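Worked Example 4.2. Read the sequence first, then its C-alpha cells.
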Amino acid sequence: MSPQKPVIVYILLILSLLFSPTVSADTSINITKTKARIRTDYELVKVSDSEDMGMLGIHYDFFPIKQYQQIYFGVGSLGAVHGDRGGFFTGGLSAGWLQNFHKKHYVDIGAHIAGGGGAEAFPGSGMLFRSHLGYEYQVNDSAIRIGVANTRFIDTTNPNSNDIHPYIGLTLSADFINSFLSTESVFENNGFKLSRYDIAPAVMTYSPKDNISLRSGKPHNETGVLLGMQWNKFSSKNNFYSSVGFYGAGSGGIDGYATVLAGVGWRHKLTRRIYLDAKGLVGLGGGGDVDTGGGLYYQPMIGGGIILSRDWSVDLLAGQTLADDGGFEANTLMFALNWTPNVLNPNSANTSFGLSKFESVKWRAFVDHKTYLPDSGIYDKSGAEYASSINLLGFGVEKPITDWMAISGRGYGAWSGGVGAYAEGLFGVQLHTGDMLSQYNTQIEVRYDIGVAGGGGMEVGDGVINQLIIGAKYAISDTLSLHAELGRMQAIDGTFAADTMIIGVDWEFGLPVKR
C-alpha cells in the first residue's frame, strides 16, 4: 500500500466517525456534569549519574463516584521536554485520592501505570509505575501543585530504574458532560451555555530544511507524513481558541516518531464561508531517529479555511517546526477536517431539556490490554528474534454510526516483550450484530484497523500497520461492557506480523449537542 492510501482511508474513516444522525423516540435529553480536571506535572528523572531528563506529565482525571468525590481515575502521558531524550513517551492509566484538609488546601496521593519509552533512556519492556504524594492550593478553577514522585521503570537495563524526586505542576478544572435519553425529564431545566469545539482528523507533513541530520548522523532529507487528531475549544467571547493535537508518523522513514501539541489559536471570518486561521503551538516530540534534543519544540502556523456547512469546515495551514535544543527544523503543512458541534454546558450538575433543539450523540470509551504472538522466523531491526509475546496497554473511543456499524480510534504502548519504545495509533471500521443477541447481553463484532506504529526496534517499515479482528462484547450494565477479541496484525511494508488477543472494558456516554 502506498503512503497516500492510508491517508485517504484515514480521512474516510473519521468522516464516518464524526457524522452521526440521531433518531430517537425519546422525548427528553437528561444531562449530568461530573467533576474532572486536567493535571500537569514537571519533574527531573535521573537517567544516569550525570544526566537528568526533564519530563512533563499531562493527565485527565475523572471523579465518577458520587459518594466518594475524593477518588479519581484517569488517563495520561509522560514525555521528555528537557535534556537529550526527545522521543521518550509513555501512556497509561491513573488513580488517586484528592483530600481537602483546610479551605483551599488539598493533599493528593496517586499512582500511574503506563507503557512506552524511547530515546534509549530506559531500554527494556517499557513498563513504568509512578506514584506521588503532593500538596495543592486551589485558586478559583485551577490549582498549584508541589510534591514528591517515585518513578519505577520495570524490567529495564538502565541501573537508575528507581528514582525519587520533587515535582511542580498545575491543574485546571474540566467538567465532564454526559447525556442520556428518556421518555421523561428526570431533572429540572436550570439553563445552559453552548461551548463550541472542533474535533478533527488531521494530516501533517514535515519537510526538513537543508543540512538537517538524524540522531544517527544520516541526512534527514525525506518528507515525513504524520496522521493524527486535533481538538479545539473556542472562547465564547472572541475568536481565540485553545488547541491540542496528537500525531504519529506514517511515512518518511521516521517510523516511531510521535508528537503531542498544545497552544492557542485565532480564527477570523473574511466572508460568510472563508476564514483566516493562525495558531502557536508548543510540542513534545521525537522518536524515529529524529533529533529533537530534549523533546521540546515550537510550531507557529498560519493559513485559512472554508466553511462547508454549519457543522463542517476544512483548514490548510503552513508554518515551521523548530526544536528548542535539537537539530530539527522543518517546513510544516497541516490539513484538517473539522466537525464543530455546539455542546450543551448546563448551569447545574443535573439538567433536562426537550429534544426539539438538542440531541445526544453516543460515544464509547474503552481500555484495552493487547497481546501480540509474533510469527516465527521474523526479526527486529537489530536482527534479534522477538519475544514469544508482546503486551501493550491502550485506550480509545468508539462512535456508533448505525445499529450495526461503528468507527473507532485507539492508541497502545508496549509494557513487556523487550520493545518498550513501541507505540501505535489505529482507526477502524467495525460491523456488529446490534440488537440480534440483546436477550443474551451479547454482541458479535468484526473490525478492520489501519494506522501508524513504530519504535522499540520493531520492523514495521515506514510505520503503517493494519489488523483484522473478530470478537464478542458482553454488557454488564446499561453503560459498561466487557469485550474479548482475536485477530491478525501485519505491517504494510515491514516484516512484523503477529496473531492478536485483546481484552477490555467499554463505557458508553452521550455528548449533548445543539441540532
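Now turn to a second chain, presented in exactly the same format:
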Amino acid sequence: MSTDSTKRPRKKGQQPAGRGAKPEPAAEEVRPRLGDEVPERVWRWASISILMLATALRFYALDLKPLHHDEGVNGFFLTNLLNGLGYRYDPQNYHGPSLYFLTAPLAKLAGLKTYAVRIPVALFGVGTVWLVLALRRNLGAVAALAAAALVAVSPGAVYYSRYFIHETPFVFFTLAIVVAALRFHETGGPGHLMLLALSAALLFTTKETAFISAGTLVLAALVAWSWVQLTGGPAAAVTRAERRRKGEATGLTANFFRRHDRMAPLYVAVAASLFVAVYVLLYTSFFTNSKGLSDSFAAFDVWSKTGASDFHAKPFYTYVKWLLQEEGPILILAAAGAAFALFERRKNRFAIFAGAWAFGLLLAYSLIKYKTPWLVLSFIVPLCLAAGYAVQALGRLIWAPLSIILAAAALAVCLYQSVVVNFVRYDDDRYPYVYSHTQREALEMVREVERLRDRLRERTRADRPPRVTIASPEYWPLPWYFQGIPGVAYEQKVNPSYDPLTVDAVIGRESDNPSEDQTAKLRAALGANYQKVGTYPLRPGVKLALFVRKDLAPSDGGR
C-alpha cells in the first residue's frame, strides 16, 4: 500500500500565490501530510505485528466459551444445511443467509465443531483489521496503524469475532464498501466497482439492518463533503472553476465515463447485475426457496417494528454507557479525532467522514429502543478510525511523544480489558458484552450426559445413545452440544409419567419462581425410578436440573 507524496506536481493552470510559495491544495483533495507517514520498513513490520496480535486474540482457544443462545440457533440452521435439509430464510426471527453459506464449506471439511464454525467469523475479524490498514492513503500511516491496533485489541471487536453470529461479517462488509468506494473514486477502475457491488450485496444478505449502515455511510459522506465546501477556503473553488473552464472532468462520474467511454454503462450494468445475482442466489438458497426473496423485503417491516417494540428496550444513553465501560479510551480519542478533523486548517475529508460515520451510527442506534451489545461493533470500527486520527493529529499539532504515550495507554487498557472479558470473565454478565451468555457450568451437564452414555454401555451392555428428554422450554444452545446424541427429544413440557424403559434422563427447569419451576412436577412424574444428579446454570436466570435413571446415575451421586 503506497502513499501519495505531499510534493505533488502543480496542476496545469494553477499559479503560485507568490515568489517561492507552493500552491495551496484544494481542501477536498488534501492527502495525509509529511509527518503523518512512517518509513516503509516501520509500516511493514508494524502492520504485520498488528495483524499477528489480532489473529492471536481471535483464534487462541476459540472454543473456550460455550456457545451463546443465538450461536446455538445459527448452528442448528448450519447443521440442517450440511445434512441436506436445506436452509429457508425466515424474516420473523433470524438474520440473513450469508453467514451459513460462507461457513458451510469449512464446517463440511472440519466437521460441526465449535471452533470450526467460529473460524470464518474470526477470519472476518482479522480481515477488518487488514481493511483498516488499507486506509493508509486516506487517513495517514500513523492514523491507520493506530486505528488498526485499536480494532485489533478492542474488547468488543475481539469478543464478537469469537462468536458464530452475523455481526463481525456485517462490519467487515460495511468497511469493505468504504474501501472499495474510495479506490473506485481514486482510480475509476471497474474492478473496484465490482468489489463495491459485491460488498454491498453481502452486507444486505447478512443482516436486515444493512439499510441503517448504508444510509449512515451516505449521510456521513454528504456531511464530509458539505463541511469541506463550507470551510475549505477559496482555493478549492478556484481550482474547480478553472477545471470547468478548461473542460476537464470535475467529479467521479464524469471521470469514470470519460475514462471508459462506451464501456462505462456496461460496467455499471454488470455491477448492478452482480449485486442482484448475489442477493437473489443467497435469499432463495440457490433457487430452492423462491419465497425467500419476497421475505427478504418483508424483513424490513418486521425489523422496523422490532426496533420500536419493548423487546430489548433500553434507555437512549445505553450504548455510550457500554462504550465508556468497555471501550472508554477509544470513545474519548474518537471524539478528539472527530474534533481535530472538523476544525484543523487543512481538512482531511476522509477523517471528517469517519467521525460522522462513527457518531452518526451511534446516534442512529441510540434513537432505536431495541439495544443489544453486539450492535456496538458497528460503530466500534469507525470510532477506531477517528481515534487513530486523533493520535496522528496530536503528534503533528502538539507533541509527538504525547501521542505515543496516549496511544500506548489506550492500547494497554483495551488489551487488558479484552483479555479479561474474552479469556477469564467470558460468561460473567457484569460485563456488557456478556449478554445472557451460556454459563461454563452448563458444559458440565453436557459432559454428564456423555458420561451417561458410557455408563449405559458398561452397565446394560446396550450399544445405543442415551434417550434424553428435555422438558425445559429454555434449552438453547443444547441442541448444538447434543447433536451427536440422536436420542434427545425436545418436548418442552413435563409429561404425566416417564417410562424408564424408554427414557434414560430428563432435563427440566429449576427456578425460585413457582410458575417457572418444573422440579416438583418432575419428581412426581419420575417417581422412585430416577435420581436428581445436579443443577446447572444455563445462563443468568435459567437453571436446569438433570434427572437420571437410578441404575445409570453416577456412583458419587452427582453434584
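Notes for the reader: The two ends are 58 Å apart (CA to CA). The longest strand covers residues 530-539.
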